[in-house]
Design a protein that fits this description.
Layout: H1 2-28, H2 32-41, H3 49-64, H4 78-87
Helix pairs in contact: 1-3, 3-4
Length: 88
């Protein structure tokens, strides 16, 4: 039961992160790449950074209850999530 709940939380966090990125892309349109690069380079807050942190924490919690990260369908975010997990 705990594993199913943890997986649900990963799915919810992934959906929230993807929605944040989609909203940012709509807001900035063709300037999206440039704006996200500037957010990465500057100390300005990245609106999706918190959503990404929640995603990483959810995957970490999933692993803590015995889940295997390889079983999660993280799609395009997989590499970045794995890098964040392995860095901490």
């Amino acid at each position: 039961m705990a594993l199913a709940q943890a997986r649900f939380q990963v799915d919810e966090a992934l959906a929230a992160y993807r929605q944040c990125v989609e909203e940012e892309a709509k807001e900035y349109g063709p300037e999206y790449e440039r704006v996200t690069f500037m957010e990465y380079e500057a100390p300005a807050p990245d609106p999706c950074a918190e959503a990404f942190s929640r995603l990483v924490a959810a995957v970490r919690a999933y692993e803590a209850v015995g889940g295997n990260r390889e079983d999660l369908d993280l799609g395009a975010e997989r590499k970045r999530v794995y890098e964040a997990l392995d860095r901490e």
